[in-house]
Amino acid sequence: MHAVIEKLNENLKVVYRQALDADKKLDELQQQGHGKFKALFTEDAGFTFDAKRFKPYVLDVAADVEALSNNDELDQQKLTLAVTKLQNLLKLLATFK
């Protein structure tokens, strides 16, 4: 279980850095009059909220991973949701570059 949490945290660090860069680019685009959207993800991405920047989504996944690490046993359903959210973040960040 510890190895899974450790790997998730490693991926979160990478995603966090990419999210900060992407948010900076989104800010620049919005200042130029672009980026008129309500949210980065649709409802089927696993997130329960809407945001126009990446950082809130990264923090949401980080909270999920933190909750997983606080449990004695690995909750498979929560793990699947956290991994799905992380994958969605990685995919969108990859297409954003």
Describe this structure in words.
This protein is mainly α. The protein has one domain. The chain is 69% helix and 0% strand. It contains three helices and no strands. It has helices at 2-31, 55-70, 76-96. The longest helix has 30 residues, at 2-31. The protein is elongated and about 50 Å long. The N and C termini lie far apart (33 Å). Keywords: Coiled coil. This is Prephenate dehydrogenase. Residues 5-32 form a coiled coil.
**How many E-type strands?**
0
Largest sheet: number of strands, sense, barrel closure: none
- The radius of gyration is 14 Å
Structurally, the number of domains stands at 1
Short key terms for the protein model shown above:
Prephenate dehydrogenase, 97 residues, 3 helices, elongated, coiled coil, mainly alpha
SSE topology:
Blueprint: H1 2-31, H2 55-70, H3 76-96
Helix pairs in contact: 1-2, 1-3, 2-3
Q: Would you summarize the structure shown here?
A:
This protein has 97 residues and is mostly helical. It has helices at residues 2-31, 55-70, 76-96.
